[in-house]
From TrEMBL:
This is FAD-dependent oxidoreductase. Its EC number is 1.-.-.-. It comes from the Bacteria. It is an enzyme of class 1 (oxidoreductase). The keyword Oxidoreductase applies. Pfam families: DAO. Residues 12-321 form the FAD dependent oxidoreductase domain. It comes from Pseudomonas yamanorum. Keywords: Oxidoreductase. One of its GO terms (molecular function) is oxidoreductase activity.
Protein backbone atom coordinates (compact mmCIF):
# COMPACT_ATOMS: atom_id res chain seq x y z
CA UNK A 1 0.00 0.00 0.00
CA UNK A 2 1.12 3.60 -0.45
CA UNK A 3 1.94 5.84 2.51
CA UNK A 4 -0.37 8.72 3.20
CA UNK A 5 1.09 12.05 2.09
CA UNK A 6 4.12 10.43 0.43
CA UNK A 7 7.24 12.56 0.53
CA UNK A 8 8.10 13.79 -2.95
CA UNK A 9 11.00 16.14 -2.24
CA UNK A 10 14.21 15.22 -4.07
CA UNK A 11 17.35 14.28 -2.17
CA UNK A 12 20.94 14.99 -3.05
CA UNK A 13 21.89 11.50 -1.87
CA UNK A 14 20.27 8.40 -0.39
CA UNK A 15 22.46 6.01 1.61
CA UNK A 16 21.01 2.52 1.98
CA UNK A 17 22.17 0.70 5.11
CA UNK A 18 22.53 2.22 8.57
CA UNK A 19 25.59 0.31 9.71
CA UNK A 20 28.88 1.96 10.56
CA UNK A 21 29.78 2.39 6.89
CA UNK A 22 26.41 3.81 5.89
CA UNK A 23 26.33 6.28 8.78
CA UNK A 24 29.91 7.42 8.16
CA UNK A 25 29.33 7.85 4.42
CA UNK A 26 26.16 9.87 5.04
CA UNK A 27 28.11 12.17 7.37
CA UNK A 28 30.93 12.46 4.83
CA UNK A 29 28.46 13.51 2.12
CA UNK A 30 26.90 16.16 4.33
CA UNK A 31 29.98 17.49 6.11
CA UNK A 32 32.84 17.01 3.64
CA UNK A 33 31.00 17.25 0.33
CA UNK A 34 28.41 19.82 1.37
CA UNK A 35 25.27 17.96 0.27
CA UNK A 36 22.22 19.57 1.84
CA UNK A 37 19.63 16.79 1.66
CA UNK A 38 20.96 13.36 2.64
CA UNK A 39 18.72 10.45 3.62
CA UNK A 40 19.93 7.36 5.49
CA UNK A 41 17.72 4.26 5.23
CA UNK A 42 17.99 1.30 7.63
CA UNK A 43 15.90 -1.88 7.57
CA UNK A 44 16.31 -2.58 11.30
CA UNK A 45 14.78 -0.59 14.16
CA UNK A 46 18.16 0.88 15.18
CA UNK A 47 21.46 1.88 13.58
CA UNK A 48 24.58 -0.31 13.74
CA UNK A 49 22.55 -3.30 14.94
CA UNK A 50 23.46 -5.99 12.38
CA UNK A 51 26.93 -6.76 11.00
CA UNK A 52 28.38 -3.68 12.74
CA UNK A 53 27.42 -5.27 16.08
CA UNK A 54 27.55 -9.00 15.39
CA UNK A 55 31.27 -9.37 14.83
CA UNK A 56 34.53 -9.81 16.68
CA UNK A 57 34.83 -6.07 17.52
CA UNK A 58 38.48 -6.07 16.49
CA UNK A 59 40.30 -3.05 15.06
CA UNK A 60 42.99 -4.79 13.05
CA UNK A 61 46.61 -3.70 12.98
CA UNK A 62 47.75 -6.00 10.18
CA UNK A 63 48.82 -9.07 12.16
CA UNK A 64 45.91 -11.18 10.96
CA UNK A 65 46.91 -11.07 7.29
CA UNK A 66 50.43 -12.44 6.67
CA UNK A 67 49.16 -13.87 3.35
CA UNK A 68 47.77 -10.54 2.14
CA UNK A 69 50.34 -7.77 2.44
CA UNK A 70 48.01 -5.11 1.03
CA UNK A 71 45.26 -5.82 3.57
CA UNK A 72 47.79 -5.97 6.39
CA UNK A 73 49.46 -2.72 5.38
CA UNK A 74 46.15 -0.87 5.02
CA UNK A 75 45.09 -2.01 8.51
CA UNK A 76 48.44 -0.84 9.87
CA UNK A 77 47.88 2.60 8.30
CA UNK A 78 44.24 2.85 9.34
CA UNK A 79 44.33 1.71 12.99
CA UNK A 80 45.88 4.92 14.40
CA UNK A 81 43.39 6.98 12.37
CA UNK A 82 40.49 4.99 13.81
CA UNK A 83 41.79 5.40 17.36
CA UNK A 84 42.13 9.15 16.74
CA UNK A 85 38.65 9.61 15.23
CA UNK A 86 36.64 7.37 17.59
CA UNK A 87 38.56 7.42 20.90
CA UNK A 88 35.33 7.13 22.90
CA UNK A 89 34.59 3.73 21.35
CA UNK A 90 38.09 2.23 21.49
CA UNK A 91 39.28 -0.15 24.19
CA UNK A 92 43.04 -0.46 24.53
CA UNK A 93 43.40 -1.65 28.12
CA UNK A 94 44.02 -5.31 27.37
CA UNK A 95 47.05 -7.37 26.43
CA UNK A 96 46.98 -8.79 22.90
CA UNK A 97 48.88 -11.97 22.06
CA UNK A 98 49.46 -13.76 18.78
CA UNK A 99 50.65 -17.36 19.04
CA UNK A 100 51.99 -19.50 16.19
CA UNK A 101 51.05 -23.18 16.18
CA UNK A 102 53.76 -25.78 15.66
CA UNK A 103 51.70 -27.86 13.23
CA UNK A 104 49.39 -26.98 10.34
CA UNK A 105 50.23 -23.29 10.49
CA UNK A 106 50.63 -21.48 7.17
CA UNK A 107 53.38 -19.30 8.65
CA UNK A 108 56.24 -20.10 11.01
CA UNK A 109 57.12 -17.93 13.98
CA UNK A 110 60.12 -16.47 12.17
CA UNK A 111 58.05 -15.75 9.07
CA UNK A 112 55.41 -14.04 11.19
CA UNK A 113 57.99 -11.92 12.95
CA UNK A 114 59.58 -10.87 9.64
CA UNK A 115 56.15 -10.07 8.24
CA UNK A 116 55.33 -7.79 11.21
CA UNK A 117 58.62 -5.96 10.77
CA UNK A 118 57.85 -5.50 7.05
CA UNK A 119 54.64 -3.60 7.83
CA UNK A 120 56.21 -1.87 10.85
CA UNK A 121 53.74 -3.46 13.28
CA UNK A 122 54.87 -3.49 16.94
CA UNK A 123 55.87 -6.98 18.07
CA UNK A 124 57.92 -8.40 20.93
CA UNK A 125 58.35 -11.71 22.73
CA UNK A 126 55.72 -12.46 25.36
CA UNK A 127 56.78 -12.77 28.98
CA UNK A 128 57.29 -16.20 30.57
CA UNK A 129 54.11 -15.66 32.60
CA UNK A 130 52.05 -15.15 29.44
CA UNK A 131 53.76 -18.00 27.61
CA UNK A 132 52.80 -20.28 30.47
CA UNK A 133 49.15 -19.94 29.42
CA UNK A 134 49.87 -21.89 26.21
CA UNK A 135 50.51 -25.59 25.65
CA UNK A 136 54.20 -25.64 24.59
CA UNK A 137 53.88 -28.90 22.66
CA UNK A 138 51.40 -27.21 20.29
CA UNK A 139 52.65 -23.60 20.26
CA UNK A 140 55.93 -22.61 18.64
CA UNK A 141 56.11 -19.02 19.87
CA UNK A 142 54.01 -16.28 21.49
CA UNK A 143 54.23 -12.57 20.67
CA UNK A 144 53.00 -9.43 22.35
CA UNK A 145 51.34 -7.14 19.79
CA UNK A 146 49.13 -4.04 19.59
CA UNK A 147 45.46 -4.35 18.62
CA UNK A 148 42.29 -2.65 19.83
CA UNK A 149 38.65 -3.55 20.33
CA UNK A 150 35.67 -1.29 19.63
CA UNK A 151 32.37 -0.79 21.42
CA UNK A 152 29.53 -0.82 18.87
CA UNK A 153 27.02 0.64 21.33
CA UNK A 154 29.22 3.71 21.74
CA UNK A 155 29.70 3.94 17.98
CA UNK A 156 25.91 3.81 17.53
CA UNK A 157 25.44 6.65 20.02
CA UNK A 158 28.07 8.65 18.14
CA UNK A 159 26.31 8.01 14.84
CA UNK A 160 22.88 9.01 16.16
CA UNK A 161 24.23 12.23 17.64
CA UNK A 162 26.31 13.27 14.62
CA UNK A 163 23.57 12.45 12.11
CA UNK A 164 21.14 14.62 14.06
CA UNK A 165 23.59 17.51 14.37
CA UNK A 166 24.37 17.31 10.64
CA UNK A 167 20.68 17.46 9.70
CA UNK A 168 20.68 14.04 8.02
CA UNK A 169 17.27 12.40 7.84
CA UNK A 170 17.19 8.81 9.12
CA UNK A 171 14.47 6.28 8.32
CA UNK A 172 14.63 3.05 10.33
CA UNK A 173 12.34 0.05 9.83
CA UNK A 174 12.59 0.85 6.12
CA UNK A 175 14.27 -1.02 3.31
CA UNK A 176 15.09 -0.05 -0.24
CA UNK A 177 13.27 -2.30 -2.68
CA UNK A 178 13.87 -0.93 -6.15
CA UNK A 179 16.10 1.53 -8.02
CA UNK A 180 15.51 2.79 -11.55
CA UNK A 181 16.39 5.73 -13.76
CA UNK A 182 13.92 8.57 -13.78
CA UNK A 183 12.71 10.68 -16.68
CA UNK A 184 13.27 14.15 -15.27
CA UNK A 185 15.51 13.13 -12.34
CA UNK A 186 18.67 11.00 -12.28
CA UNK A 187 17.45 8.16 -10.02
CA UNK A 188 14.25 6.91 -8.42
CA UNK A 189 14.18 4.68 -5.37
CA UNK A 190 11.24 2.80 -3.87
CA UNK A 191 11.29 2.40 -0.09
CA UNK A 192 9.16 -0.06 1.87
CA UNK A 193 8.45 0.48 5.55
CA UNK A 194 8.00 -2.43 7.95
CA UNK A 195 4.27 -1.73 8.21
CA UNK A 196 3.97 -2.20 4.46
CA UNK A 197 3.62 1.30 3.05
CA UNK A 198 5.75 2.40 0.10
CA UNK A 199 7.16 5.71 -1.01
CA UNK A 200 8.87 6.80 -4.18
CA UNK A 201 11.77 9.23 -3.90
CA UNK A 202 14.10 10.85 -6.39
CA UNK A 203 17.79 11.51 -5.82
CA UNK A 204 21.00 12.37 -7.63
CA UNK A 205 23.14 9.80 -5.81
CA UNK A 206 22.57 6.39 -4.20
CA UNK A 207 25.09 4.53 -2.06
CA UNK A 208 24.24 0.87 -1.50
CA UNK A 209 25.91 0.00 1.81
CA UNK A 210 23.73 -2.96 2.73
CA UNK A 211 26.64 -5.42 3.23
CA UNK A 212 25.04 -8.87 2.83
CA UNK A 213 22.07 -7.34 1.02
CA UNK A 214 24.07 -5.69 -1.78
CA UNK A 215 22.35 -7.75 -4.50
CA UNK A 216 18.81 -7.64 -3.10
CA UNK A 217 17.60 -4.58 -4.99
CA UNK A 218 15.38 -4.82 -8.07
CA UNK A 219 14.34 -2.46 -10.84
CA UNK A 220 17.23 -1.30 -13.02
CA UNK A 221 19.79 -2.56 -10.51
CA UNK A 222 21.74 -5.46 -12.05
CA UNK A 223 23.77 -6.41 -8.99
CA UNK A 224 27.46 -6.05 -8.30
CA UNK A 225 29.95 -7.39 -10.82
CA UNK A 226 32.26 -8.88 -8.20
CA UNK A 227 31.49 -12.35 -6.90
CA UNK A 228 30.31 -12.52 -3.29
CA UNK A 229 30.33 -15.42 -0.85
CA UNK A 230 27.76 -15.46 1.94
CA UNK A 231 28.30 -17.29 5.24
CA UNK A 232 26.10 -17.88 8.25
CA UNK A 233 28.49 -17.44 11.15
CA UNK A 234 28.38 -17.95 14.90
CA UNK A 235 30.23 -15.77 17.38
CA UNK A 236 29.86 -17.07 20.97
CA UNK A 237 30.12 -14.53 23.77
CA UNK A 238 32.01 -15.87 26.78
CA UNK A 239 32.78 -14.92 30.36
CA UNK A 240 36.49 -15.67 30.57
CA UNK A 241 38.19 -16.78 33.80
CA UNK A 242 40.23 -14.14 35.66
CA UNK A 243 43.44 -15.53 34.18
CA UNK A 244 42.26 -14.54 30.67
CA UNK A 245 39.94 -11.59 31.34
CA UNK A 246 42.50 -8.93 30.43
CA UNK A 247 43.74 -10.67 27.31
CA UNK A 248 43.02 -11.02 23.63
CA UNK A 249 44.51 -14.15 22.03
CA UNK A 250 44.84 -15.27 18.44
CA UNK A 251 46.38 -18.65 17.55
CA UNK A 252 47.27 -18.82 13.87
CA UNK A 253 47.68 -19.27 10.94
CA UNK A 254 45.46 -22.18 9.94
CA UNK A 255 42.38 -23.93 11.40
CA UNK A 256 42.75 -22.12 14.70
CA UNK A 257 40.92 -19.60 16.87
CA UNK A 258 40.76 -16.12 18.37
CA UNK A 259 39.29 -14.62 21.54
CA UNK A 260 38.79 -10.85 21.81
CA UNK A 261 37.25 -8.49 24.35
CA UNK A 262 33.70 -7.58 23.32
CA UNK A 263 33.30 -4.17 24.98
CA UNK A 264 29.59 -3.72 24.19
CA UNK A 265 28.77 -6.60 26.56
CA UNK A 266 31.77 -6.74 28.88
CA UNK A 267 32.48 -10.27 27.63
CA UNK A 268 34.82 -11.96 25.14
CA UNK A 269 33.99 -13.20 21.66
CA UNK A 270 35.31 -16.57 20.54
CA UNK A 271 35.81 -17.45 16.90
CA UNK A 272 37.19 -20.56 15.25
CA UNK A 273 38.18 -20.90 11.61
CA UNK A 274 36.57 -24.36 11.36
CA UNK A 275 33.44 -23.92 13.52
CA UNK A 276 32.45 -20.24 13.20
CA UNK A 277 31.19 -20.64 9.59
CA UNK A 278 28.03 -22.79 9.61
CA UNK A 279 26.81 -22.53 6.03
CA UNK A 280 28.02 -20.78 2.88
CA UNK A 281 26.79 -20.13 -0.67
CA UNK A 282 27.53 -17.94 -3.67
CA UNK A 283 25.46 -14.78 -3.48
CA UNK A 284 22.88 -14.08 -6.15
CA UNK A 285 19.90 -11.83 -6.70
CA UNK A 286 16.64 -13.34 -5.46
CA UNK A 287 18.29 -15.38 -2.67
CA UNK A 288 17.82 -13.23 0.43
CA UNK A 289 20.67 -14.01 2.88
CA UNK A 290 18.74 -12.56 5.82
CA UNK A 291 15.81 -14.83 5.05
CA UNK A 292 18.18 -17.80 4.99
CA UNK A 293 19.58 -16.72 8.34
CA UNK A 294 16.08 -16.38 9.78
CA UNK A 295 15.17 -19.91 8.69
CA UNK A 296 18.44 -21.48 9.80
CA UNK A 297 18.44 -23.86 12.78
CA UNK A 298 20.90 -22.03 15.03
CA UNK A 299 22.51 -24.89 16.93
CA UNK A 300 25.64 -23.66 18.67
CA UNK A 301 29.04 -25.21 18.04
CA UNK A 302 30.55 -23.52 21.08
CA UNK A 303 31.41 -26.83 22.76
CA UNK A 304 33.60 -27.81 19.83
CA UNK A 305 35.19 -24.36 19.73
CA UNK A 306 36.06 -24.46 23.43
CA UNK A 307 37.31 -28.03 23.28
CA UNK A 308 39.69 -27.29 20.42
CA UNK A 309 40.83 -23.88 21.73
CA UNK A 310 41.45 -25.48 25.13
CA UNK A 311 44.12 -27.70 23.63
CA UNK A 312 46.22 -24.59 22.96
CA UNK A 313 45.16 -22.45 25.95
CA UNK A 314 43.88 -24.78 28.71
CA UNK A 315 42.42 -21.92 30.78
CA UNK A 316 39.76 -21.41 28.09
CA UNK A 317 38.13 -24.62 29.31
CA UNK A 318 37.06 -22.62 32.39
CA UNK A 319 35.18 -20.03 30.30
CA UNK A 320 31.41 -19.68 30.77
CA UNK A 321 29.21 -19.53 27.69
CA UNK A 322 26.59 -16.77 27.61
CA UNK A 323 25.03 -16.87 24.14
CA UNK A 324 25.93 -16.67 20.45
CA UNK A 325 25.64 -13.96 17.83
CA UNK A 326 24.52 -15.46 14.51
CA UNK A 327 24.99 -13.25 11.48
CA UNK A 328 25.65 -13.20 7.74
CA UNK A 329 29.27 -12.57 6.76
CA UNK A 330 29.98 -11.43 3.21
CA UNK A 331 33.37 -11.71 1.51
CA UNK A 332 34.69 -11.25 -2.01
CA UNK A 333 35.19 -14.65 -3.61
CA UNK A 334 38.44 -13.54 -5.24
CA UNK A 335 40.07 -13.23 -1.81
CA UNK A 336 39.20 -16.63 -0.38
CA UNK A 337 42.68 -18.03 -1.01
CA UNK A 338 44.72 -15.23 0.58
CA UNK A 339 42.23 -14.14 3.27
CA UNK A 340 42.55 -10.54 2.05
CA UNK A 341 39.85 -8.02 2.92
CA UNK A 342 39.92 -5.21 0.35
CA UNK A 343 36.93 -2.95 -0.11
CA UNK A 344 34.40 -3.24 -2.90
CA UNK A 345 33.58 0.12 -4.50
CA UNK A 346 31.52 -0.32 -7.67
CA UNK A 347 29.98 2.33 -9.89
CA UNK A 348 26.85 1.04 -11.66
CA UNK A 349 27.01 2.32 -15.23
CA UNK A 350 23.42 1.28 -15.91
CA UNK A 351 22.34 3.61 -13.08
CA UNK A 352 24.53 6.74 -13.23
CA UNK A 353 25.05 8.04 -9.71
CA UNK A 354 24.54 4.65 -8.03
CA UNK A 355 27.40 2.96 -6.14
CA UNK A 356 27.75 -0.25 -4.14
CA UNK A 357 30.21 -0.38 -1.25
CA UNK A 358 31.43 -3.31 0.84
CA UNK A 359 34.13 -3.38 3.50
CA UNK A 360 35.50 -6.47 5.20
CA UNK A 361 36.77 -4.72 8.35
CA UNK A 362 35.76 -1.62 10.26
CA UNK A 363 39.07 0.14 9.54
CA UNK A 364 38.41 -0.20 5.78
CA UNK A 365 36.24 2.91 6.13
CA UNK A 366 39.25 5.08 5.32
CA UNK A 367 39.82 3.19 2.06
CA UNK A 368 36.18 3.84 1.18
CA UNK A 369 36.47 7.55 1.94
CA UNK A 370 39.58 7.77 -0.25
CA UNK A 371 37.58 6.23 -3.08
CA UNK A 372 34.80 8.72 -2.46
CA UNK A 373 37.32 11.56 -2.76
CA UNK A 374 38.54 10.15 -6.07
CA UNK A 375 35.04 9.64 -7.47
CA UNK A 376 33.44 13.06 -6.91
Amino acid sequence: MACENPQSTDYDAVVIGGGFYGATIALYLANQRGLKRVLLVEAESALLSRASYNNQARVHNGYHYPRSFTTAYRSRVNLPKFARDWPQAIRQDFTKLYAIARRNSKVTAKQFERFCHSIDAPISSASPELRALFEPRLIEDVFLVQEYAFDTIKLAKWAESELSVSGIEVLCNTRAAKIFKGLSVPLNIVLKATEGCERLLSTRLIFNCTYSGLNQLSGGFCGVRSGLKQEITEMPLMKMPDSLSGLGITVMDGPFFSMMPFPARGLHSLSHVRYTPHLHWTDQQGVDPYEKLGNYQKESRVDRMIRDAGRYVPEILKAEYRHSLFEIKTVLTRNESDDGRPILFERHLELPGCFSILGGKIDNIYDVLEKMDESF
